[in-house]
Amino acid sequence: MIKNILPPTAMALLLAGCVSAPEVRAPARQPTPAASFSPRPAPAVIRGLESVIGKDANAVKRLFGEPRLDIVEVYGRKLQFVGTPCILDAFLYPERKGGREIVTYVDARRSDGAAVDRAACIEALQRR
Questions:
Q1: Which domains does the chain have, with CATH numbers?
Q2: Which one, out of 17, 76, 106, 111, has a CA that is 20 to 30 A from the CA of 26?
Q3: Rounded to the nearest 5 degrees, what angle is found at the Cα of 51, between the Cα atoms of 50 and 57?
């Protein structure tokens, strides 16, 4: 009878190859509180934007007319106004939980996507 016995060192090496490396875990993170409403801080008004920043949707519509887009999101709203010189996006968020939505940020660009001065775009859209 022939015995197929591996030398003990060979057996140890074979078994070592079957063992996986210990699992490395990232340090435990502090749990974050459940998602809750967090109103945006009062916007700092940049010169030339004061006719829009801090205004509600009705006031902005009186300045520029009906928006091309009026997108309502979970916590805010986006109004888009379009004119020959530029496209203006006004982003509105509640002043506080359950409060009225006001413009906290505006973005302006040309129809080809190139950025334009926001204050100049506001002025141009008000003149049309």
A1: 57-127 (3.30.1450)
A2: 17
A3: 115
